[in-house]
């Protein structure tokens, strides 16, 4: 009889536990934290297929005397616009592709419109520098297979970017020259340390990603941005 009573008690406990987990308005995964299930970019714009993108680039005939305008026009023609980042200190436009790899994007663009400087190629980013324009190509760490192409004016780079972003990419003296600021790297580094608020490159989820933990943040909606700046 005692054994039978024990079985009943165990059964009741099991039923209560199952009800708590799978009962009304309960989610069996409710204990998970830090999930990116809802933190996705479900509205990536459509883009042409690989052959059409390459054909568009190959047939492009820009103004050889105005490489900044030419590279902007080429990128606009070849790739869909993903986002626009705005601040009081300049604007950058973010384009994207899932059809080409980072090396292919960099090589295709630089072969068609010759940049002033071509950075070293790291595993996940490379920079093409044109007069008054930076083309910053990155592999997305959030969206596998996605390559972002940031078209940023030198004013945006000069006043927003963390200099550490360019470590291993461009020599300090090159940045000083193209940004037209004496010792830009050192001055900007000091500013970033004081404000803890410098731009560390574009991130698909949430728009911008700060190189530190500062408040320079972007909008998760395309066309948005900091608005009021830093």
Helix content: 25-40%
Radius of gyration computed on alpha carbons: 24 Å
Mean pLDDT: 78
Share in β-strands: 15-25%
Task: Describe the main β-sheet briefly.
Answer: 6 strands, antiparallel
Measured between the Cα atoms of the first and last residue, the distance is 75 Å
Class inferred from helices and paired strands: alpha+beta
Strand order of the largest sheet: 1-2-6-5-4-3
- Tell me how many strands there are: 8
SSE pattern: HHHEEHEEEEHHHEE
Poorly predicted regions are 16-40, 211-230
Global morphology: globular
Total helices: the number is 7
Descriptive report:
With 230 residues, the protein is of the alpha+beta class. Helices cover 35% and strands 19% of the residues. The strands form 2 sheets. A 6-stranded antiparallel sheet has the order 1-2-6-5-4-3. Helix 2 (50-58) runs antiparallel to helix 3. The protein is globular, with a radius of gyration of 24 Å. The model is unreliable at 16-40 and 211-230 (pLDDT under 50).
Question: What's the short version?
Answer:
The protein has about 230 residues and is an alpha+beta fold. It contains 7 helices and 8 strands.
Primary descriptors:
two-stranded antiparallel ribbon; 230 residues; 8 strands; disordered C terminus; six-stranded antiparallel β-sheet; alpha+beta
